[in-house]
């Protein structure tokens, strides 16, 4: 595999797509196929299946595997496919091997949720996954425990091609980027906290970002990416101000509304998404009204 080319392809908008459900709460593979086709047809070139916005931790392992198989079959070579993997080392490795068999280009390794982690243990965890497959590896960092020491160790693997960095500490991110410059490490830095933080991460070294907003409005993150790449600061800030209320709503309740806002926004726009599974909860009436006002302000919904 050409890891340099893969790294370059990952410098864009990586859409963590939702997992739609039927009315009885099962994964809706028909709507899943329709949705990823909608994203690809609207210019999205990187799809992340079984990410956090896809409710990975609410899916059974069988559901996660079947979802990835459906997406891989639907999009073929029309977009770059990244598969989320996690859980215990054996399960994460098994999921990575399954992703490779499905034709995924890379796996995004979710930040481990174990209550007891050390740098040495994290190194062993990532080593085991990276050494089990030849596809690209993307660590997803949501915790400061995955620090410069750990990331430097991980980056020694040839197939570690990118890092989704989701700790909103810009000085720390700057230190990490300086410690692992792209030219030497082959790592594409992705802002892991979406459009609202992407301008600031780009200023320090990010070259792409992940997006949940794209599930319902793919043109907005693509426009943000174009403005960032073009150094159009005024345009970037106009887009940032426009998108910010949506992302702030998703960030409420310690980001507990992340998925609910995306899915309910899709439903408001006539896109079938289904509900959410516990421990996520639907929006309250007040939150739903706020979301509707945001979509109206964007011209996606008619005013009441």
Can you give me a brief rundown of this structure?
The chain has 304 residues and is α/β, with parallel strands linked by helices. It has helices at 3-9, 29-41, 61-75, 89-102, 119-130, 148-154, 170-179, 182-185, 194-204, 219-229, 233-250, 252-255, 258-268, 285-297, and strands spanning 13-16, 46-49, 80-85, 106-109, 136-141, 162-165, 188-191, 208-211. The chain is 49% helix and 12% strand.
Bulk shape: globular
Succession of helices and strands: HEHEHEHEHEHEHHEHEHHHHH
Mean pLDDT: 96
Give, in spatial order, the strands making up the sheet with the most strands. Answer: 1-2-3-4-5-6-7-8
Largest sheet: 8 strands, parallel, barrel
Low-pLDDT stretches: none
Can you walk me through this structure?
- The structure is a single chain.
- This protein is of the alpha/beta class and 304 residues long.
- It contains 14 helices and 8 strands.
- An 8-stranded parallel β-barrel has the order 1-2-3-4-5-6-7-8, surrounded by 7 helices.
- Helix 6 links the parallel strand 5 and strand 6 (162-165).
- The protein is globular.
